[in-house]
Structures are given as C-alpha cells and as structure tokens.
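Structure (tokenized):
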C-alpha cells in the first residue's frame, strides 16, 4: 500500500515537471505589426496606441490562429478610430504573411474622404444671462470632423462658463448627426450652466504662524464678486509659489440652500519659515561665495525678509530686502531694500550705499512691473581720480517671463526692460539709464533632449557725456554673464590696462544644449559683445566674440555648470587663453 502510494507520488511529480518543461519551452509566433494606406499621422498614432496587435507585440501569441484572432479583434476598433477622425467611409482589412520572418500582421487602411463639420449649434438651458449667450462656437464649419475637436470645444465652453460666474456647469446633451449624402457632421450641444454664484465667506484651515489677515489681503476677489475659476487657480498658484506653504488647496464649499453665495475654503500646510543657503562659483576673476538667510513670515502676515552676503576677489556686498505682499491690492508688493558694497575690479574702486522703496505688481501670471525710488551714495576711484556721487533714482521696469523652468529652461521667453532717471543731488550730471534684455528657449528634439537658447541685450545711458557718468554706472562687457572667453570687463575702451567703460553696450549669446541622460549634459556656445560711446560710429569690427563648450550635471536644485571658453577675435591687448567658469544654473 505504501509502495503504491510512493510510486504514484513519484509519477505525479514527474508528470508535473514534464508539463512545466513543455510550458517553458512552448513556442510563440513572433510577428511584426504593419499598417499601410493610413496617410493621416493622427490615425496611425491612435491605432498604434489602441490596437492590441501593436500594444502586445512584445507578448506574441502561441499560434498563428491566436495571432489571427488578435488581429481580427482590432478591426472594429480601427474602424471607430477612422470615424473619430472624420473618415466615415474608411475601410480596413487585415492579412497575415507567414512567408516573412518574423510573421507580418498587416492592416490595409483605405481612409476615403474626410467628413467636415456642418451646422454647429449651442444651446444654454434655464439661462437668460447675456454673457452666456455671447460665448461663440470655435468649431469651424468646413473643418475636418475630428471627434477630439468637438470634445475640446465642450471642455472650452464649460471652462468659459466657470470664468463668468457658473462654478458647476454641465453638458446636458450632445447630438451628432452624420450626413453621409453631403459628407458632413452636424453638431448640437446643450449646456446647463447651473446657478450663477458669488463669492461668500472665507474659511482657512492649517495656519500656524500666519495670520488669516494675510490670506484676506492677497485674495484676488472681494466678498460678493462674481465667481471666476481663473481667480481660484491663480490664488492656489500664488500660495504655492510664495514659499510659505508645502501644500495649498483652494476649494468651493456647498452652497447654502436657496443662496447663490458660495463659500471658499483654503487648506494649507506651512513650510519651515527660515532658510539658509550657500553658494560657490569660479570664473576668470577667481572663486566666489554667497550666503543667504531668509525669513518668509517676519511679522505674521507673509512679510519676506532676506539678507544676502556676497564675496569675490573684486566685490564684498551685503544687502537686505523686506517684501510685504498685498500692498493696497492683492497682486502688489512693497519692497524695501538696503545695500552696502565695496567693488574693486580693474576698471574702478567704489564704495556704495543704496536704499530703495519699490512697488511691484503682478499684472498677469507672466507679466510684472514696478516703479519706486532709490537713493545711492558712492565714492568712486578711477585712474587715480576720486569722486563722490549722490543720486536720487526713479526706476521703472517690466518683465515678461513664461519660461518652463527658472534654472534650466527649455521652452519659453523672458524679456526685461528698465529705465531709470538719475538726478544728481550734487548738481553735476543727471542722466537716464535704459537696459533691455531678451531670452528665448526652444526644444529641438525630445530624445535625446536637445534645446537651443538665445540671449540679446542692449543698454544705453543718455543725457550726459561719458566722462560725467560715474565709473560704477557705465557699461562694461566681458567675463561670465557677459562674453565668455574674455577677462572680466576687458571688452571696450581702455586707458592703459584699465577698462573705462562706455555709454552703450550690445551683447548676444547662443547656446546649443544636449541632455542625453538623466544627470549629464553638454553645451556648445558662442557669445559676443561690444562697448560704445557713440552707437552711430560703431562697426562690426568692434564686436568681440568668444566660443566654448560646457558640461552640465543636473541636480535636484538645478544644473551644475562648467564652461570652457576661448576668445575668437581678441585685440592685441587682450589675453588669448581659455577661461573657466563654474556655477549653479544655466548661463542664461
């Protein structure tokens, strides 16, 4: 009895192992999916993303029969893809070619004519608001009848309703009529806007050190204003970008019965309010270092106090700023500043003291500007002549910035313009200093990541002869942040070995940036610049050009940059040697 049991048990295990071996070695039918005749790239992409024949190519079936069933199962789905792109007369057939290695699984597609949108109608139920009736269709009669365009139109209208006071709109009905005789698709969309709502009370949850008054001050609306979804999303963005919160969410609360007032609740968690940061760098002037201490809620209402110490062989500087958000309006800040510095480049030596009061306003998500008042005292020594200056300065500035990333942008544009009037309190020379700078970024290739960056800058000082402009206010060029490959401030007029600067500057930079992997990147660049005292008398020969190569190591806080640059057309007085730069963040 026991012997039979043991023999049976052994036989069972032998059969099991044999079955596993057969299963492990079971053949599969490797195949290559193909599609012919679909000239519309969107159709090809949609089919490849949806059809199992394409998606499961790495999991081939065990038999030709299973492959054939897989292909045939995809045929109705491909037909729906064709219809979603407006090809209502499209046809699709399949074939399997076993004479090829691997086997070919092919879809033969005949698109036929693309139907166009015909009549497009909007209807809004239970609503007499004139603003609602003014929402126009953007679907164009005669455009290709692409289903996704219709869905995008629905989302756009619902979003537009949320912008004009209706927080909970809905699509009531969608009617799509396919007119095969005229090859048109007629669309009728019925929307239910819901109840028009107005901002009600504010509830704040999660504050610890911040006062509720801070939230009330930066609200982009007042109680009783008509609801606007953009204001809600902009408030959430502003809270997260303030540096005060780790998380922040702005949500609508249920409306009280019979009321069109809608309460708003802000749920936030505060970050550590104090930060200390360190930075180091290296360029042709030597090593540099900085220390930054920041308190983002000094008095309990979101006041940002920041002190920065900078050291390099040519500059010692300490500056502090206090920024109060919500200054008279939600999108406006008051910035008070104080700075003391000693600068000792080859061009001049200067001791400076600057105080300022600036009002800055955020006009849109991408546009900001401001104005204010500055006082500057400086004691400047150049060419063994020492002078003291006292200026009252009236600056005006604006900036457009839609870059996707501040430290490592690959898309977007940044443009900065400023103009400052300098009134000499000692009765010497007054003047106007204007600076313009534009930067553009474009992704050329996503894999590997290849992008290009362009910088153009121009500056001019008008109203005074160059010899009457303080040496520390003139323009200089050369070095990191200007024209790499040349020594710091060594482009332009010189007296002996001393740069004396000028009243106009023009610069450009072009970079090609490659990031083939996660951490390592490369750059090739060319910079150029010139200093003038009379722009009308300049020639192209005045421009100095430098070129070089760079390495980038990408970290969680931005790319670590190492650049090597060489002057292409230096003057006889300028050194012909490779310059070396290290810093955090891209060059521009």
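Design, position by position:
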């Amino acid at each position: 009895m026991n012997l039979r049991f043991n023999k049976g048990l052994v036989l069972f295990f032998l059969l099991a192992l044999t079955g596993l071996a057969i299963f492990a070695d079971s053949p599969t039918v490797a195949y290559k999916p193909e599609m012919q005749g679909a000239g519309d790239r969107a159709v090809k992409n949609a089919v490849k993303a949806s059809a199992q024949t394409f998606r499961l190519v790495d999991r081939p079936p065990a038999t030709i029969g299973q492959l054939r069933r897989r292909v045939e199962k995809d045929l109705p789905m491909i037909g729906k893809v064709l219809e979603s792109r407006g090809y209502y007369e499209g046809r699709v057939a399949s074939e399997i070619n076993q004479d090829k290695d691997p086997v070919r699984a092919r879809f033969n597609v005949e698109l036929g004519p693309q139907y166009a949108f015909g009549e497009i109608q909007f209807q809004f139920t239970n609503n007499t608001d004139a603003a609602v009736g003014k929402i126009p269709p953007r679907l164009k009669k005669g455009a290709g009848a692409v289903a996704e365009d219709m869905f995008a139109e629905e989302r756009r209208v619902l979003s537009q309703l949320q912008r004009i006071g209706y927080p909970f709109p809905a699509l009531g009905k969608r009617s799509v009529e396919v007119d095969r005789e005229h090859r048109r698709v007629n669309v009728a969309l019925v929307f239910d806007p819901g109840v028009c709502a107005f901002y009600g009370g504010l509830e704040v949850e999660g504050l610890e050190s911040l006062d509720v008054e801070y939230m009330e001050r930066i609200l982009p609306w007042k109680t009783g204003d008509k609801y606007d979804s953009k204001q809600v999303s902009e408030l959430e963005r502003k809270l997260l970008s303030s540096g005060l919160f780790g998380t922040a969410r702005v949500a609508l609360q249920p409306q009280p019965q019979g009321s069109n007032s809608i309460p708003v609740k802000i749920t936030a968690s505060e970050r550590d309010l104090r930060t200390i940061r360190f930075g180091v760098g290296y360029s042709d002037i030597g090593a540099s270092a900085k220390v930054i201490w920041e308190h983002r809620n000094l008095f309990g209402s979101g006041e940002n106090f920041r002190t920065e110490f900078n050291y390099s062989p040519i500059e010692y500087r300490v500056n502090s700023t206090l920024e109060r958000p919500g200054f008279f309006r939600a999108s406006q800040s008051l910035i008070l500043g104080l700075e003391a510095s000693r600068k000792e480049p080859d061009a001049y030596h200067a001791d400076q003291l600057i105080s300022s009061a600036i009002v800055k306003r955020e006009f849109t998500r991408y546009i900001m500007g401001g104005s204010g008042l500055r006082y500057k005292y400086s004691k400047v020594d150049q060419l063994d002549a020492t002078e003291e200056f006292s200026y009252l300065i009236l600056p005006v500035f604006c900036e457009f910035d839609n870059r996707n990333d501040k430290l490592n942008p690959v898309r977007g544009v940044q443009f900065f313009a400023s103009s400052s009037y300098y009134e000499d309190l000692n009765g010497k020379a007054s003047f106007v200093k204007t600076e313009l700078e534009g930067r553009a970024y474009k992704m050329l290739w996503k894999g590997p990541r290849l992008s290009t960056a362009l910088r153009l800058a121009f500056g001019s000082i008008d109203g005074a002869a160059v010899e009457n402009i303080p040496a520390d206010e003139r323009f200089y060029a050369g070095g990191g942040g200007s024209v790499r490959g040349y020594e710091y401030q060594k482009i332009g007029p010189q007296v002996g070995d001393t740069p004396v600067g000028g009243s106009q500057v023009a610069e450009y930079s072009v970079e090609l940036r490659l990031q083939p992997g996660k951490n390592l990147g490369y750059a090739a660049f060319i910079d150029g610049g010139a200093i003038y005292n009379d722009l009308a008398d300049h020639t192209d020969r005045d421009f100095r050009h430098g070129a070089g190569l760079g390495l980038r190591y990408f970290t969680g806080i931005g790319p670590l940059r190492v650049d090597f640059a060489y002057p292409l057309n230096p003057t006889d007085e300028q050194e012909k040697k490779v310059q070396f730069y290290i810093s955090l963040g891209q060059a521009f």
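Reviewer-requested clarification: The helical segments are 2-24, 41-50, 52-55, 64-84, 130-133, 147-163, 212-218, 229-241. The longest strand covers residues 385-401.
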